[in-house]
Amino acid sequence: MDSKKRTQELLSKVGITVNGANPLDPRVHDERIYDRFFSEGTVAVGDSYMDSWWDVDDLPEMIARAMRSRAGAAMFAMPLRHAVPLFVKSRVFNLQN
Q: How far is the C-alpha of 10 from the C-alpha of 7, rounded, in Å?
């Protein structure tokens, strides 16, 4: 499973839809956010927001809902067979270096 699908799956469990219509649904402007999140962790959420890779109308509610659900922790608790390829991909194909 790629990082985009994994992210969307985890967020959908708490009622957050990427590019959805609700005020707490994030709008993604740069698809690199998914790999960045897996390679840099939760800090990447804030950094990529500041870099305008994504935005949301109701940021406090989106963050609160994600934190209550522990979506970030679940992201890093994925099976190793999924996590290792995503991590390697993010390091090998990091176009920012």
A: 5
User: 93 and 24 in contact (C-beta within 8 Å)?
Assistant: no
Please, which residues bridge with residue 27 across strands?
55
Which tens digits make up the pLDDT trace of 49-97? 999 999 999 999 998 888 777 655 555 455 556 666 666 766 666 555 5
Helices and strands (H, E) in the chain, number of each type: 6, 2
CA pair distance 44, 22, nearest whole angstrom: 23
3-state secondary structure of 60: helix
> Bridge partners of 12?
none
**What contacts 86, CB < 8 A, 6 or more positions away?**
2, 3, 6, 35, 38
Distance CA 51, CA 71 (A): 22
pTM above 0.85, yes or no: no
